[in-house]
Specification:
Blueprint (H helix, E strand, L loop, with lengths): L7 E7 L11 H4 L5 E5 L7 H13 L3 E5 L17 H21 L6 E2 L3 H9 L1 H8 L7 E4 L4 H9 L3 E6 L21 H14 L1 E3 L5 E3 L6 E7 L5 H20 L1
Helix pairs in contact: 3-5, 4-5, 5-6, 7-8
């Protein structure tokens, strides 16, 4: 498939604590990323955490996106829940609207929307689920998703700008879908670097069955996702930043 045709960015899920419970080292990660996906209260996050996360992003000039998930705090949005299309649309609109209120208070734009966890997987497996979720996204707002799936197809049908995601700390199935673990597993530095470098430099990756697969990112803008709840997430994002900066400088000057 060849290398991406646009500069590669990095996005990380932030604000995924709840009350007194902290999830990831947001203050350390924010310094190394371009885009933040802010939890909106259904799988994680609460009003104070959302407010603090938006302020943190503003301080570091990081673009902010909404990260709506299924209503499952205990399962961290990684357990499937059957919901009607109407419920899905309203749920997404509700969460995006909540974040938008905090952005308005800081005079900041909503950069994108990226669904969280198992909802993301439900969307690339089922077109009507994807359509219902994207129907809750404000008109003209960019969505982040998995290229070559219903994510991209439905976004284009609805006129939503689309950014193709790569993954720094998630493995791929042979059918180019993601292995969504409820609890993230650790990576060795060697695994991390190989996994990221192949995607960034060649738009390819080794699937869990050992097969090398091409990722159909096409002409889309590209952002590599890392997770704040992954073991060793700081080192993963550091490795991604080095590889991506080298690629962007070499390819785009």
């Amino acid at each position: 498939m060849g290398a991406p045709k646009h500069k590669v960015m990095i996005n990380v899920d932030l604000g995924e604590g709840y009350g007194n419970f902290k999830c990831g080292p947001d203050e350390d990660l924010i310094q190394m990323v371009d885009h933040a996906n802010v939890a909106c209260g259904f799988h994680a996050g609460d009003p104070l955490i959302m407010q603090q996360t938006v302020a943190l992003c503003k301080q570091h000039k990081v673009a902010i996106g909404a990260h709506p998930g299924l209503p499952d705090i205990q399962g961290f949005g990684r357990r499937e829940i059957k919901m009607s299309p109407e419920e899905l649309t309203a749920m997404v609109r509700y969460q995006v609207g909540a974040l938008k209120a905090f952005l308005d208070a800081e005079d900041l734009p909503l950069h994108h929307v990226k669904p969280h966890g198992v909802l993301y997987g439900m969307m690339y497996r089922d077109k009507e689920t994807c359509r219902a979720v994207y129907s809750g996204v404000p008109k003209g707002v960019r969505v982040f998703g998995l290229a070559g799936t219903y994510h991209e197809e439905v976004a284009k049908e609805l006129g939503l700008p689309f950014t193709a995601e790569l993954y720094g700390d998630v493995k791929y199935n042979a059918d180019k879908t993601l292995v969504i673990d409820r609890k993230k597993k650790p990576w060795t530095p060697e695994e991390t670097q190989k996994h990221i470098r192949a995607q960034v430099e060649n738009s390819s990756v080794t699937a869990v069955n050992g097969q090398d697969i091409n990722l159909p990112i096409g002409d889309n803008e590209v952002s590599l996702c890392c997770h704040s709840d992954s073991p060793g997430c700081i080192e993963i994002v550091k490795a991604a930043r080095i590889i991506i900066d080298e690629f962007n400088k070499k390819t785009f000057g």
